[in-house]
Amino acid sequence: MDEATRYTLVYAIVGTLLLIGVPALIVHLRRRKREKLRRRGIKRYGH
């Protein structure tokens, strides 16, 4: 395997992880925020 192929493979893997990871992280953080507000007494958040 030459250098160009190796770098392409690495970028493809990193790109795929970012595409999956970033939206999942945003959803997780949003859910945590909603849980915190619900515990504080705000029942309907974002509706």
Structural write-up:
The chain has 47 residues and is mainly alpha-helical. It contains one helix and no strands. Helix content is 81%, strand content 0%. The model has no long low-confidence stretch (mean pLDDT 87).
Number of strands: 0
Mean pLDDT: 87
> Hey, roughly how much beta strand do the residues contain?
under 5%
**Total of helices:** 1
- Listing every helix as H and every strand as E from the N terminus to the C terminus, the arrangement reads H
- Gyration radius, rounded: 19 Å
Structural class: mainly alpha
Major sheet details: none
Low-confidence stretches: none
Distance between the termini: 53 Å
Shape: rod-shaped
Helix proportion: over 70%
List the helices and strands and how they pair.
Blueprint: H1 3-40
What can be said about this structure in brief?
The chain is mostly helical. The longest helix is centred in the middle third of the chain and has 38 residues, at 3-40.
